[in-house]
Structure formats: structure tokens, C-alpha cells
């Protein structure tokens, strides 16, 4: 597991109380923000969703699809006078080659972290532990012809990274991304990102002109009218998703899958993928599908 509240690597020796003079009043500890990065951009999509970008530590390397611990300093503990970092696991939504980092987050009004994080502005500091990990990485899958990215809500984040990752298009002939949300406005971040790939000169040059034609995007909503209503799980069970997309049902010879959504969704789709004959993989044991839980505050 991740060390979310580990010790601060930036401990400042000058803040220690001198030990020679035992009667001296202890010098109050000024909290030094550990692993600080600066917010460069913030975009709000709905009253429940926003994304932001921040600086990237020069030495930080990661594989597209991984996550890190990020957060803010918590409130001062009235008993000890100390502050502890309040950290949560967040998928990195930007690709590994991007010089900045991007995150896509829910806003929970009484959530310990996101009730505050939703108010960040460019120029503000956030804490970022530069130790990326995760299973939604190409290394955890065996070679295949077609890859499925299954997301609900903010579970789109790791796929925002992988959809901008050249290896995705080197490894697969077809890239299918399904995104199920409650309301239509919650699809905006993903839709805008996929639309922007078409005009991204750098990616079209690096990956190959028209690389985005490999993408089949299947957005659905469950609680508000949109072009396609329903949970992706139900739409796959009925066969509707496959006929809408004009593709064959999932089979273990050609198909690989990555899943990121809420817990109930992950459990349900995992079972379905197993029924199609896919097997769960990991970094140490690549197989035909991988799963990760989307962050909820
Ligand atoms: P629904 O509105 O029918 O619950 P949330 O915002 O709660 O994380 O949900 C995001 C989306 O995931 C919603 O559209 C929700 O549908 C859907 N969802 C929740 N549970 C499942 C599940 N077990 N299988 C498929 N979709 C699910």
C-alpha cells in the first residue's frame, strides 16, 4: 500500500529547539509544506467536478495510468499545535510525457479533502508525494488487438492519461472508451479531451496523423437524458453497446481491458469480464484485464 502520511522528507534542521538550554522557551514549529507543487490552472465542469494542473517535480517519472498521493495541509490540531498533510490517491490524468501534471477530481461539500481542494487557484501550493504506482498500465496487460477503457465518473482520469499516451496506439488497432455518468455535464471533461486529440498537432506528429481514428467513444448517462442512456454493464449484457459500436463482443484472444470506477461498478464489470474469458493481471503478472478504484472523498 501507499505511504500516504509518511514523514516529511524536507525536514528543516534549523527549526529544531536547541538542546543545550533546557529552560529556553521552545521555538514554535513553523510547518514546512512537504513535497510542494504549484497549481497552474483550474477548470470547473459541474458543481461536482473540476480538473487542475500543477507543476511536476523535475525528477518524477511515471507510467501513464498510474496514481500518486496528493493533498493539502490539514487543520492545526488544537492539542498538539501540529498540522498533518491530508492526502488521497489521485490518478494522474496527464500523460507521462507532459511537463505538468493534471488531475480530475470530484467535489464533496463535506469531504475532508475535496471540500477545500475545490477552492484552489493558480499560484496555490498543493502537496504531491512523487511516488507513482498503479495497475492501469500497459505493462500489466498481455499484447492484444483491441483495448477497452471502462470508466464511471472521475474514473475517467487514468484514461485521460492513457488516451494521450503514444504506446496506447502503438500497442492496439482499436481503443474503445466507455464512460458512464449520472448527468450529461459530467461527460464534458472526457468529451472535450477526446475532441482535442483531433487537433493536437504534436500528438498527430508523434503518434501518426489520424491516430485518433482508432478511438471509439461511448458515453452514457443514467440519471439525465443524453444521446445514450443506461449503465454500460446493462448495455453490454443486452448486446446494445456492441451493436452501437459496430464491434464483436469481448473475447480473450483479441481484447484487453482496463477498469476504473466506483466500487459497485468495478465488482460488476470484473465479473462480466471474467465471464467473457478475461483474466485479471498485475504488474508482476500481466494478463488480459486490470482494475482500479476511482477516488471518492
Ligand atoms: P446509477 O445512476 O444508475 O447509479 P457515481 O457518481 O455514484 O460514482 O456513479 C457514476 C455512474 O456509475 C452512474 O452513472 C451510476 O449509475 C454508475 N454505476 C453505479 N454503480 C454501477 C454498477 N454496478 N454498474 C454500472 N454502473 C454503475
Strand and helix layout:
Elements: E1 36-46, E2 49-55, E3 67-76, E4 83-91, E5 100-106, H1 114-117, E6 125-133, E7 146-152, H2 157-162, H3 166-171, E8 174-181, H4 188-198, H5 201-207, E9 215-221, H6 232-237, H7 240-245, E10 255-261, H8 263-275, E11 289-293
Parallel strand pairs: 7-8, 7-10, 8-9, 10-11
Antiparallel strand pairs: 1-2, 1-6, 2-5, 3-4, 3-6
This protein binds adenosine-2'-5'-diphosphate (A2P).
Short description:
This protein has 297 residues and is of the alpha/beta class. Helix content is 20%, strand content 29%.
Question: Would you kindly provide a written description of the structure presented here, covering whatever features stand out?
Answer:
- The chain has helices at 114-117, 157-162, 166-171, 188-198, 201-207, 232-237, 240-245, 263-275; strands at 36-46, 49-55, 67-76, 83-91, 100-106, 125-133, 146-152, 174-181, 215-221, 255-261, 289-293.
- With 297 residues, it is of the alpha/beta class.
- Residues 1-22 have low confidence and may be disordered.
- It contains eight helices and eleven strands.
- The strands form two sheets. A six-stranded antiparallel sheet has the order 4-3-6-1-2-5.
- Adenosine-2'-5'-diphosphate is lined by residues 152-153, 180-182, 222-223, 231, 233, 262, 264-265, 268.
Amino acid at each position: 500500500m501507499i505511504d500516504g502520511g509518511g514523514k516529511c522528507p524536507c525536514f528543516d534542521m534549523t527549526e529544531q529547539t536547541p538542546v543545550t538550554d533546557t529552560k529556553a522557551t521552545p521555538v514554535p514549529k513553523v510547518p514546512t509544506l512537504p513535497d510542494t507543487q504549484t497549481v497552474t490552472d483550474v477548470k470547473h465542469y459541474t458543481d461536482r467536478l473540476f480538473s487542475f494542473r500543477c507543476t511536476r517535480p523535475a525528477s518524477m517519472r511515471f507510467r501513464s495510468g498510474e496514481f500518486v498521493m496528493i493533498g493539502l495541509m490539514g487543520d492545526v490540531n488544537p492539542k498538539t499545535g501540529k498540522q498533518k498533510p491530508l492526502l488521497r490517491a489521485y490518478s494522474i490524468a496527464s500523460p507521462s510525457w507532459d511537463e505538468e501534471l493534471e488531475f480530475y477530481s470530484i467535489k464533496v461539500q463535506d469531504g475532508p479533502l475535496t471540500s477545500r481542494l475545490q477552492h484552489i487557484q493558480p499560484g496555490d501550493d498543493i502537496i504531491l508525494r512523487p511516488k507513482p504506482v498503479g495497475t492501469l498500465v500497459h505493462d500489466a496487460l498481455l499484447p492484444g488487438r483491441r483495448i477497452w477503457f471502462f470508466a464511471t465518473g472521475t474514473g475517467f482520469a487514468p484514461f485521460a492519461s492513457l488516451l494521450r499516451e503514444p504506446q496506447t496506439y502503438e500497442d492496439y488497432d482499436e481503443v474503445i472508451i466507455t464512460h458512464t455518468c449520472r448527468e450529461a455535464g459530467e461527460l464534458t471533461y472526457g468529451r472535450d479531451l477526446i475532441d482535442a486529440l483531433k487537433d493536437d498537432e504534436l500528438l498527430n506528429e508523434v503518434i501518426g496523423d489520424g491516430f485518433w481514428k482508432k478511438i471509439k467513444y461511448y458515453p452514457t448517462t443514467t440519471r439525465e437524458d443524453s444521446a445514450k442512456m443506461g449503465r454500460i454493464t446493462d448495455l453490454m449484457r443486452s448486446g446494445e453497446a456492441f451493436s452501437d459500436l459496430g464491434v464483436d463482443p469481448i473475447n480473450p484472444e483479441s481484447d484487453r481491458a482496463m477498469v476504473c470506477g466506483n466500487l459497485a461498478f468495478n465488482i460488476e464489470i470484473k465479473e462480466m469480464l471474467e465471464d467473457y474469458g478475461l483474466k485479471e493481471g498485475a504488474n508482476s503478472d500481466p494478463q488480459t484485464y486490470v482494475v482500479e478504484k476511482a477516488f471518492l472523498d
